[in-house]
Amino acid sequence: MVHLIWAGMAVIGIIYALFNGTIDQVNEAIFNSAAEAVNLSIGLISILVFWLGLMRIAEKAGILKSLSAVFKPLITRLFPDIPKDHPAMGYILSNFIANLFGLGNAATPMGIKAMKEMKELSGSEKASRSMITFLVINTSSLTLVPTTIIAIRMQYKSAFPTEIVGTTVIATLITTTAAIIIDRIFYLRRVSNR
Amino acid sequence: MNIVSMISVAIIPCTILLILVVGSVKKLPTYELFVEGGKEGVSMAVSLLPYLVGMIVSISIFRSSGALDAAIGLIQPVLSFLSIPGEIAPLALTRPISGTAALAITADLLKIYGPDSFIGRLASTMQGSTDTTFYIITVYFGAVGIRKMGDALKVGLLADIIGIITSIIIVTIVFS
């Protein structure tokens, strides 16, 4: 899917330019934008280093663990199929917390472990109720600190790079809540159709 | 709505404060831990580089040729019906499919319209409040061999649409 978008944009752009006399602009854009992408990636280093460094301290200090304890009562309600003290629940919590703090790299392995445990619980090749809930919450994005975006905003000289944190958190809350409700509706529909 | 901006500004320094205080109280080697974790940040940014170069060049070709504006013009009636600004449409369409493509488009929008413009703020919020549905489903279901994904894709995509619309509403309310 991605390779189609990628090649498609370039191919359509170049053909369009050939017919509309904008090939000069395209030629210039290719080299300027490549250089710019490098600058952008290098610029990302500052925030990523700082944030991931702090998060390592938070992890070792047990802050992430105590946060899981806070969220546990809420999360167990979302997954009525999973016994409270099952390892799956622990992995789900770690995945959510890691996502909240922008630790995508740490979140994915936790998520995969959670899926494995949930598969063992259901023992089928079909996605179980909890798996769907888990995925839907993940795809609706859980973000408290959108580090990469802040870094990009800094690169382009924003007067207030972090001013979008508030709007992002509100939007995430609403979207995730909506996703959970939609997930429930679909679940109830499946059950009543059975 | 000033409160939202105030929290936005204070949340990061306060998080840092909390982490450092707890870390120091627990007598952890905070500096060493910081450096160790920070190294991961370097490799993360470097590994992102080829993805961003590829995507940003492709998007720039598409934009500078004039094809992007033509494409937005074509779907303009649908967009204005949903009250989605045309400039944001490419981001909304790629967000569920590819994380790096969406990131590249966000960067492109921030550059063209400025990070503090309405489009800039909207792109920033949208990028943070939705996620790459197709990628997440592929990775998680693929890793454990789930063949029948049930309603996951449908619900995920519905959530994306809600995320896009919510971002537009929130950014309009907070920043105007």
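qc> Helices of chain B lie at 2-25, 30-64, 67-81, 89-94, 99-113, 118-129, 133-144, 152-174.
qc> done
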